[in-house]
Design a protein that fits this description.
The protein has about 375 residues and is an alpha+beta fold. The protein folds into three domains: about 100 residues, no CATH class; about 140 residues, no CATH class; about 70 residues, 2-Layer Sandwich (Alpha-Beta Plaits). Helix content is about 20%, strand content about 35%. The chain has seven helices and 26 strands. The chain has a six-stranded antiparallel beta barrel. Strands 2-12-14-13 form a four-stranded antiparallel β-sheet. About 25% of the residues are buried. It comes from Salipiger bermudensis (strain DSM 26914 / JCM 13377 / KCTC 12554 / HTCC2601).
């Protein structure tokens, strides 16, 4: 069975086994405004590499960093000396500072080579301050790094598995500065939908009002619902947020068809509908094959010349085309899948048909090609 037929049949089976939409928790489709991670970044040095570090001739910033580090450690002025070490690499260190991270807590960091180092395996990151977008230092990273990939090089061949110039340090940074954010001081909290939609926002507000009573929430726009912290709830904001985030509702979604042209993957949403159309798929396949023949009529010793005689074979195959009726807009996803499946198309042919139906104005859905 072709790829498209298998995939469409699977989607059709799922549409029968499951409801079109399911109840989900608010925490799975939305976030609380202000409760977020913050990006951190820093520049540092990895030392202890076994000759796989930066070549200082091609990475002058690594040499300058080594000189500055050694001067801070009291080695003295090295600007006139020629440093030739290959055991050090300049790296960028990135991390995500979780919400409400406290002093002394640890976070993971990612270490990425900045110069021409071939591998960071076996190295140790030297103390690296990590700053936020405001320029303040929020964490300090240091420690031995773990590399998932490897690289082996010989005289005439080499092999690389993964990316040996990117590494991680689990719990490699210690939080030194907290992001000032007090939940108890809030009179209201905004809930932000990951996929803005007015219908979903209204349903969320209704679910919150039914649970907390009164006008506890209101819809500000398609992506934001404002939750008012009222009465006794002002003293227990985390408790109110915990209660709200576990409320369940049925989110709405737009009709969409997503196509990955590179792999031939097609995903059809439950709300996709089409007008009644007739579809025919067919075409010509032209094959041109070259089979050259080598001819040498006389031996080379008596003046024979080797001649390459071209031989071309051309074949034309015409595929038989049949019209198939795709039903109207009131049918279910299962009927649409069955109709497309009945044509017996390849993945690329199915994509072409969906594009043609969209161009004809008969596909009532967003067609997104990635």
């Amino acid at each position: 069975m072709r790829i498209a037929a298998c995939l469409l049949a699977l989607i059709g089976a799922l549409s029968l086994a499951l409801p079109a939409l399911a109840d989900v928790r608010i925490k799975d489709i939305a976030t609380f405004e202000g409760v977020r991670e913050n990006q951190l970044v820093g520049y540092g040095l990895v030392v202890g590499l076994n000759g796989t570090g930066d070549s200082l001739r091609n990475s002058p910033f690594t040499e300058k960093s080594i000189e500055a580090m050694l001067e801070r450690l009291g080695v003295g002025n090295l600007s006139d000396d020629n440093i030739k070490t290959t055991n050090t690499a300049a790296v960028m260190v990135t991390a995500m500072l979780p919400p409400f991270a406290r002093l002394g807590s640890t976070i993971d960091v990612v270490v990425s080579s900045l110069g021409d180092a071939t591998s960071l395996r076996g190295g140790t990151l030297i103390v690296t301050p990590l700053t936020g977008a405001d320029g303040e230092v929020y964490a300090v990273a240091q420690g031995p790094i773990a590399v998932a990939g490897f690289s082996a090089t010989g005289v005439a061949a080499s092999i690389t598995e993964g990316v040996p110039t990117v590494a991680r340090i689990e719990n490699g940074a210690t939080v030194e500065n907290e992001v000032d954010f007090q939940l108890s001081s809030l009179n209201s909290v905004r809930i932000t939908l990951r996929n803005p939609d007015f219908t979903t926002a209204v349903r969320m507000s209704d679910a919150i009002n039914d649970r907390l009573g009164g006008n506890s929430s209101r819809v500000l726009d398609s992506g934001t619902v404002e939750l008012a912290i009222q009465g006794a709830g002002k003293g227990d904001v985390p408790g109110v947020l915990s209660e709200v985030e576990n409320l369940r509702l049925e989110p709405d979604s737009i009709a969409k068809v997503v196509v990955d042209a590179k792999t031939g993957t097609i995903v059809i949403g439950a709300n996709v509908r089409i007008d009644r159309v007739a579809v025919s798929q067919g075409g010509l396949t032209v094959m041109v094959r070259e089979d050259p023949v080598v001819s040498q009529p006389n031996p080379i010793t008596i003046g024979g010349t080797t001649v390459v005689v071209p031989r071309t074979t051309v074949g034309v195959e015409e595929q038989e085309a049949h019209f198939t009726i795709l039903e109207g807009a009131d049918v279910s996803l299962q009927r649409l899948v069955d109709a497309l499946n009945a044509i017996g198309l390849s993945a690329m042919q199915t994509i072409s048909i969906l594009q043609a139906i969209k161009a004809a104005g008969a596909l009532h859905a967003d067609l997104e090609i990635i």
